[in-house]
């Protein structure tokens, strides 16, 4: 499984019903590139209609509450996103860690909730610019990974996304050598955290990936795909990334 690239679009807080056509266009490109796994994570309001209209592309959520139900105004449980048609959820994105103050412990609990519902999880980790400048990027990211890591995980449902905070939405991308170092460190940490199957966990790179730099980033050892924000919002921009992944 780890040899199939996984390209995921994170639409963040973008997309009204009028954007469903873009999901249709992406689904078509995904179908034409069947050697690549593709998922789109639109806002929660579009999950049900996207999943119903485009059953051939995986639809994911961008978050999921750790509790199965209860007094959590504005939140969605793993069973709710599953019923709507999601097959996976992004968890612990740096924007949620910053804006909603999500902790590693929260992300771990969310991942366990998602697994109980039979969904896939994409756990996000990544350092800030200050942490990189201080030389602590690898230790920060490995610490986040350990703290966010679900109990007793096996490889089939889990994906890790390395997204340096300073590369998100900025047009700045780390040197390939820095990506290689970080993905190797994550791979090695996964080996410590998992009894077996760690080699099957895909490690995605995210942060200003686009059609122009995808091939280079996807060629880096241990980069098993991409988590794409801005360049996933249209088939025109996302298509070249999927096509770049298909060349591996
Ligand atoms: O945060 C990201 C995906 O989760 C990356 O966003 P950009 O691709 O817009 O930099």
UniProtKB/TrEMBL annotation:
Its EC number is 5.3.1.1. One of its GO terms (biological process) is glycerol catabolic process. Pathway: Carbohydrate biosynthesis; gluconeogenesis; Carbohydrate metabolism; erythritol degradation; Carbohydrate degradation; glycolysis; D-glyceraldehyde 3-phosphate from glycerone phosphate: step 1/1. Pfam families: TIM. The active site is at residues 93, 163. Keywords: Cytoplasm, Gluconeogenesis, Glycolysis, Isomerase. It is found in: Cytoplasm. It catalyses: L-erythrulose 1-phosphate = D-erythrulose 4-phosphate; D-glyceraldehyde 3-phosphate = dihydroxyacetone phosphate. Involved in the gluconeogenesis. Catalyzes stereospecifically the conversion of dihydroxyacetone phosphate (DHAP) to D-glyceraldehyde-3-phosphate (G3P). This is Triosephosphate isomerase. It comes from Parasphingorhabdus marina DSM 22363.
